[in-house]
Design goal:
single chain; 487 residues; alpha/beta; Rossmann fold; 3 domains; seven-stranded parallel β-sheet; 20 helices; 14 strands; 13% strand; binds adenosine monophosphate
Length: 487
C-alpha cells in the first residue's frame, strides 16, 4: 500500500497532510503526484470526490518551495469553471499550505476588482481563477502570464459545457509553451480528448474510475412523475417524506429559476432548505454553502453550475427534481453522495417526455436504473389522460409563447387555476417576477444597443456563472478621469 511519504512530497507538505488527518493517498493522488513532481504533464480522469484537488495542490506546493513571485506575474495558474470550485481550491491551499508563506490570489466574479488587483500587485505564487474574470484582468493590463510555470485546467468537461473553451485556448496561448500542464476531467468525450491533445505534451494518463461510472455505494432509483411543476413538487415532497434516513440532501434543478421556485415551495412546506444558483451574489452563495456544510439547513436546492464539484462531505441523498439533459451531469450529480465509500441514495424524477434523457443516461452508465414504484406506465390512468390534455394545452401555449415571448411560468399559472391557494400564490409570484424580469431585459436591450459580439460574449459569461460584467470601467476608473476639471 502506498503512503504519502512514498510520493516525493516535501516535509512541509507531508506535515500539513498529516495534520489534515490523511494517511493514505487516494488512487488519483498516488497516480498523479509522483509524475507531477517530475514536472511531467498529467491527464487526470477522475470524478469529484476522489481527492483530485489534493492530487494537484500537494505537488504544486512542493514545487513552489523554491522561488518567489514577482508583481503581476503569477507563477502558477489554476482555472476553475465556477466561483465555488475556485474558492474551494483556495481553501485547499490554506489547508495544505499552512507551513508555507505563499501568496494565493483568487480571481472570481462577484468580488471587487480592486482587492484582486492588490493581490496581483503583491505577486501571486498561485493564481486561481475563473476564465472570464482572468481575461478581464488581463485585458485591463493588470496581469502578465509569462512567468506561469504550472498551468492547471480543472473540470475540463464542465468548462466545455459552459462554453469556456475559446477563453481557455486564449489563456493557454498567453502562457509560455515550456510550462507544465495538469489537466483534469471527470469524463473524456472526444472534444475533451482533442483539447488534451492540444494542451499537453507526452502526458502521464491517470484514470481512477472508468469514465461515466457511478459509485457502487449509491442506491439509484427512478420515480415516475407527471410533468407539471406543481405535481413534480408534490412528488418530490412525497419521496423526501418516505425516506427515514436523510441526513442532508442536494436537490438538482436544470434551470436557475426553478431552483428559486422549488426552494420557496420547500421552505413554505416547512422543510429546512436553502438555494444555490448562479444569480446569487458571491457572499450569499458562500453563506448558503457554509450553512449547508454546518447542517444549519438540510436541503440544498441547486443548479448544476452552482453545485459542480462542491466539496460537501457526507451528503446522504441526491434528488434530481429534473432529469439532467446532459447524461454526464447525472454522473456528476450522483457523485455528490456515496463519497469515499459511504452509503448514499439518489432519486430522479422522470416524466414521459424525459424518456430520451433517461435512455442516454442508462447508456452512459451502462446499466438500467431501477424504478421506485413502477415505471412511467404505472402513472395513474386518470392523471395520464389529464397529462395528455395538459401537454396538448402546453404545446399550444408553447407555440403561442414563441410568438409572444412570454414565459413557461406564465403558462403554468394559467393551467394551475384549480390548485391550492398556497401553490397558486407561489406560481403567480414566480410568473409576475419572470414577466418583470423579461420586461426589464427588453427595456435594457432597447436602452443599451451593444454590438453583437460584445453582447453575446457578455451573455455567455453571465450564463457561465462567472459573475456580473462590470459596467463602464467597473472598479478601475483611470486616474486621469478622477482629476477635477479646471474651472
Ligand atoms: P476532491 O475530489 O478533491 O473534491 O476531494 C474530495 C474529498 O476527499 C475532500 O473532502 C478531501 O478533503 C478528501 N480527501 C482528499 N484526500 C484524501 C485522502 N488522501 N484521504 C481521505 N480523504 C481525502
Amino acid at each position: 500500500m502506498t503512503i504519502f511519504a512514498d510520493l516525493g512530497l516535501s516535509p512541509k507538505v507531508l506535515s500539513a497532510v498529516e495534520d489534515a488527518g490523511y494517511s493514505t493517498p487516494t488512487p488519483i493522488q498516488a497516480g498523479a503526484i509522483p509524475p507531477a513532481l517530475e514536472r511531467k504533464d498529467i491527464l487526470g480522469i477522475a470524478q469529484t470526490g476522489t481527492g483530485k484537488t489534493a492530487g494537484f495542490v500537494l505537488p504544486m506546493l512542493t514545487l513552489l518551495e523554491n522561488g518567489r513571485a514577482r508583481a503581476r506575474m503569477p507563477r502558477t495558474l489554476i482555472l476553475e469553471p465556477t466561483r465555488e470550485l475556485a474558492a474551494q481550491v483556495a481553501e485547499n491551499f490554506d489547508k495544505y499550505g499552512k507551513n508555507h508563506k505563499l501568496n494565493v490570489a483568487l480571481l472570481i466574479g462577484g468580488v471587487s476588482f480592486e482587492d484582486q488587483n492588490r493581490k496581483l500587485e503583491r505577486g501571486a505564487d498561485v493564481l486561481i481563477a475563473t476564465p472570464g474574470r482572468l481575461l478581464d484582468h488581463f485585458e485591463r493590463g493588470k496581469l502578465l502570464m509569462s512567468a506561469v510555470e504550472i498551468f492547471v485546467i480543472d473540470e475540463a468537461d464542465r468548462m466545455l459545457d459552459m462554453g469556456f473553451i475559446p477563453d481557455i485556448e486564449r489563456i493557454a496561448k498567453l502562457i509560455p509553451f515550456t510550462r507544465q500542464t495538469l489537466f483534469f476531467s471527470a469524463t473524456m468525450p472526444k472534444e475533451i480528448q482533442g483539447l488534451a491533445d492540444q494542451f499537453l505534451q507526452n502526458p502521464v494518463r491517470v484514470e481512477v474510475a472508468p469514465p461515466s461510472s457511478t459509485a457502487k455505494t449509491v442506491t439509484q432509483r427512478l420515480v415516475a412523475s407527471h410533468a407539471k411543476d406543481y405535481e413534480k413538487r408534490a412528488k418530490l415532497r412525497e419521496i423526501i417524506e418516505s425516506q427515514t434516513n436523510i441526513q442532508n440532501a442536494i436537490i438538482f434543478c436544470n434551470r436557475k429559476k426553478d431552483v428559486a421556485t422549488l426552494f420557496r415551495s420547500l421552505d413554505r412546506h416547512g422543510f429546512s432548505a436553502g438555494a444555490l444558483h448562479g444569480d446569487m451574489d458571491q457572499r450569499s452563495r458562500m453563506t448558503m454553502l457554509h450553512n449547508f456544510k454546518e447542517n444549519n439547513i438540510k436541503f440544498l436546492v441547486a443548479s448544476d453550475v452552482a453545485a459542480r464539484g462542491l466539496d460537501i462531505p457526507a451528503v446522504s441523498h441526491v434528488f434530481n427534481y429534473d432529469i439532467p439533459i446532459h447524461a454526464e451531469d447525472y454522473v456528476h450529480r450522483i457523485g455528490r453522495t456515496g463519497r469515499a465509500g459511504r452509503e448514499g441514495a439518489a432519486f430522479t424524477l422522470v416524466c414521459k417526455s424525459d424518456r430520451k434523457y433517461l435512455d442516454a443516461i442508462e447508456k452512459l452508465i451502462d446499466q438500467p436504473i431501477e424504478w421506485l414504484d413502477g415505471d412511467l406506465n404505472a402513472l395513474p390512468a386518470a392523471a395520464d389522460s389529464n397529462e395528455r390534455e395538459d401537454n396538448r394545452r402546453g404545446s399550444k401555449n408553447k407555440s403561442r409563447n414563441r410568438k409572444s415571448g412570454s414565459s413557461d411560468v406564465h403558462n403554468e399559472t394559467v393551467e394551475k387555476a384549480n390548485e391550492s391557494s398556497d401553490e397558486k400564490a407561489e406560481v403567480m409570484n414566480a410568473a409576475k417576477k419572470e414577466d418583470r424580469r423579461e420586461n426589464r431585459n427588453k427595456r435594457g436591450n432597447n436602452r443599451q444597443p451593444a454590438n453583437d459580439d460584445n453582447r453575446s460574449r457578455r451573455n455567455r459569461r453571465e450564463d457561465r456563472d462567472d459573475g456580473p460584467t462590470p459596467v463602464g470601467f467597473g472598479d478601475d476608473i483611470p486616474a486621469f478621469m478622477l482629476i477635477a476639471a479646471k474651472a
